[in-house]
C-alpha cells in the first residue's frame, strides 16, 4: 500500500472516490461515497495479459468519471504481493506478472492519485471502516473461499509488514506433511481449511461410502463433489454432511487460534462464500476455536462474526483507502 491507512471510523475527504477490485476473472469498479455507499458500478472481464488488464482498469475508471461526479483519487485492490510503492511483485492469477508498476502506470493514465494494495487488505479495510470490523482497533478479516485470504487490522491500521506483504494468512504452515497447497508447498492452512479443502474432505468421505446425499447432488460422480455441495447438504440437515462441516470447522479453528495467539484481535470477521452456511458453520467453528485458543476461558472473548459487505468489500475498502490521498477541505 502506498499510503497509510486511517483509524477505523475515519472517512477522510467527504467526496466520493473510485474503488477497483481486480479479481481472478473480472474487474469491478465503483464510485463510493464517504459513507460506504456505492453510487455507480461498472465491470469487465479481466484480460489474461497484464498490459491489457491495466488498460481495462483505466477504461472502467474513465467511464465512471465521465458518467458521474469527478473523483479525486482511485484505490485498487489486486490479488498478489503489492509493495509500498504500488508495485505488484507477484500475482498468482495472472501469468508472467513480476514487478508490474501498477500505481505509476495508472497515475500516468488517469492523472489522479492512485493507491494500490493487496485485494484482501482492501477488503479488510472495507470491513474495518464500513462493515463488521467497525470500531475494532485490532481485528482479522479472513476470507474462506477457493483459497484463504486475509487482512490484519492492528492499532486501527491495515498491518502491511516491512515490505507491504503481510496478511498472507492462508500460507502459514500447519502441517508440513499435509496436503499440497495451490502454491506448491505442503500443509498450508489454506490446503486444509479452504473451500477447496472442504470439497476434498467431501470426496474422501464419499469414497468411503458416506455422504450419499452429496454424491447424488454430484450426479454420482465422485470427483464432481464440491465444498458447496457439502454445504448445501448440511443446510438440508444431512447428518453425514454436518459431520464433515464440524471437521472442517475444526481445521478453520486451528488457523484462527494460531493467528489469535500471535495477534490478539478483538474480533475475527469471516467472509467468503461459506458464510452463507450461518450457524451450521459458525456454531462448531466458535466451539472449536475456544478449544484451541490458549487460555480461552481466562481472556476476554474474541468475537467470531460474519462479514457485512459481501462481494463489495474489496471495492469499498479500496475506495476508502483512496480517500486518504485527498487533502481535506
Structural overview:
There is one protein chain. The protein has 329 residues and is an alpha/beta fold. The chain has two domains: 17-129 and 311-323, Nucleotidyltransferase, domain 5 (2-Layer Sandwich); 136-307, ATPase, nucleotide binding domain (Nucleotidyltransferase, domain 5, 2-Layer Sandwich). Helices cover 37% and strands 18% of the residues. The chain is built from ten helices and twelve strands. The protein has helices at residues 50-67, 102-110, 119-130, 189-193, 195-207, 212-217, 227-235, 239-263, 279-292, 313-323, and strands at residues 17-22, 26-32, 38-45, 74-78, 81-82, 88-90, 114-118, 139-144, 148-154, 157-158, 267-271, 303-306. A five-stranded mixed β-sheet has the order 3-2-1-4-7. Helix 8 crosses helix 9. The chain is globular and about 60 Å long.
CATH architecture of the largest domain: 2-Layer Sandwich
Report, as a whole number of angstroms, the end-to-end distance. 24 Å
Helix-strand pattern: EEEHEEEHEHEEEHHHHHEHEH
CATH fold field value of the largest domain = Nucleotidyltransferase, domain 5
CATH homolog superfamily of the largest domain: ATPase, nucleotide binding domain
Layout of strands and helices, then pairs:
Blueprint lengths: L16 E6 L3 E7 L5 E8 L4 H18 L6 E5 L2 E2 L5 E3 L11 H9 L3 E5 H12 L8 E6 L3 E7 L2 E2 L30 H5 L1 H13 L4 H6 L9 H9 L3 H25 L3 E5 L7 H14 L10 E4 L6 H11 L6
Amino acid at each position: 500500500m502506498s499510503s497509510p491507512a486511517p483509524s477505523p471510523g475515519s472517512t477522510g475527504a467527504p467526496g466520493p472516490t473510485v474503488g477497483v477490485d481486480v479479481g481472478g476473472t473480472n474487474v469491478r469498479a465503483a464510485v463510493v461515497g464517504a459513507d460506504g455507499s456505492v453510487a455507480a458500478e461498472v465491470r469487465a472481464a479481466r484480460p489474461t495479459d497484464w498490459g491489457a488488464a491495466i488498460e481495462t482498469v483505466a477504461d472502467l475508471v474513465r467511464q465512471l468519471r465521465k458518467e458521474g461526479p469527478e473523483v479525486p483519487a482511485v484505490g485498487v485492490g489486486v490479488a498478489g504481493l503489492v509493495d509500498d510503492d504500488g508495485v505488484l511483485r507477484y500475482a498468482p492469477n495472472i501469468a508472467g506478472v513480476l514487478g508490474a508498476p501498477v500505481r505509476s502506470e495508472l497515475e500516468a493514465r488517469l492523472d489522479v492519485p492512485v493507491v494500490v494494495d493487496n485485494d484482501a487488505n482492501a477488503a479488510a479495510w472495507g470491513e474495518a471502516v464500513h462493515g463488521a470490523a467497525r470500531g475494532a482497533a485490532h481485528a482479522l478479516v479472513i476470507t474462506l473461499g477457493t483459497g484463504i485470504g486475509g487482512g490484519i487490522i492492528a492499532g486501527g491500521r491495515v498491518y502491511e509488514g516491512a515490505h507491504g506483504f503481510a496478511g498472507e494468512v492462508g500460507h502459514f504452515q500447519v502441517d508440513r506433511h499435509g496436503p499440497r497447497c495451490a502454491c506448491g508447498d505442503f500443509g498450508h492452512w489454506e490446503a486444509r481449511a479452504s473451500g477447496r479443502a472442504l470439497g476434498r474432505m467431501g470426496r474422501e468421505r464419499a469414497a468411503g461410502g458416506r455422504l450419499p446425499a452429496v454424491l447424488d447432488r454430484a450426479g454420482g460422480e465422485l470427483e464432481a463433489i464440491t465444498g458447496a455441495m457439502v454445504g448445501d447438504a448440511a443446510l438440508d440437515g444431512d447428518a453425514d454432511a454436518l459431520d464433515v462441516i464440524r471437521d472442517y470447522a475444526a481445521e478453520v479453528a486451528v488457523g484462527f487460534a494460531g493467528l489469535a495467539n500471535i495477534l490478539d484481535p478483538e474480533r475475527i470477521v469471516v467472509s467468503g462464500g461459506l458464510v452463507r452456511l450461518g450457524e451450521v458453520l459458525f456454531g462448531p467453528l466458535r466451539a472449536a476455536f475456544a478449544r484451541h485458543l490458549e487460555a480461552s476461558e481466562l481472556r476476554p472473548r474474541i468475537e467470531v462474526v460474519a462479514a457485512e459487505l459481501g462481494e463489495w468489500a474489496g471495492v469499498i475498502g479500496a475506495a476508502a483507502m483512496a480517500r486518504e490521498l485527498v487533502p481535506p477541505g
